[in-house]
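Reopening this ticket.

The earlier resolution said the output was attached, but the attachment link was broken on my side. Pasting everything inline this time so it's all in one place.
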Amino acid sequence: MSINNFWLRFLGFAGVLGGVILFAGDMLFYYDSHSIDILTNMGNVSDLRIVISGVCALVAAWLYMIGLGQVYYAFRSTGSVARNIVLICFAGILIGYGVVHAAYVAIATTAKLSVQNGLNISDATMLALKTNNLLRMLIYPLFAILSYLFIIKVWNRETVYPRWIIFFFPLLPFLLKGFIIGVFSGSARLVVSGGFLNLILMIFFLASTVALWNSGSGKDK
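Inline output:
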């Protein structure tokens, strides 16, 4: 696979932009500078914020998938079986991000109706939350397989990535999520915890772009 530096960087920035958009979608769902209660905040946001946030899921998923092209390039020298498993698992996770976020529309809409009609917000959103959590559980096995292969292949220098990219791979921040979020408080904690999964993908694609900055073939055009 031959690609010049411009397009290789473009792929990475597409992944970063996907993270930015979906992070913004998270904030549209439940950011409120005066409250850190996510369900209550979703119950009080405007209809427009819910609609725009839902649309963000599709746009971000497209951009994430474009960004995945950079991972394909980095793994081009590995065996086809390992490379394809990495790509399938990573694609499944990125698409899952979009699906899980889109499913939050049901939670936000139910929360909003609960606030408007004086219903118990926890009881009303229980089914939507249960479904959303189930969707997340389906993604974890893919994440486990991806993490194992990604780290092993990069550490053994079977990819174009340098070893330091492992520190920016989503596994480490995911395992340290509780500690990282605990550093913050108030609205800052809501922002970090609410958009955490997209923040770690933004960091990964940014680090990936830096790592592959001049790895393309030919001149920039």
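Reporter confirms the inline version is readable. The chain has nine helices and no strands. The mean pLDDT is 94.
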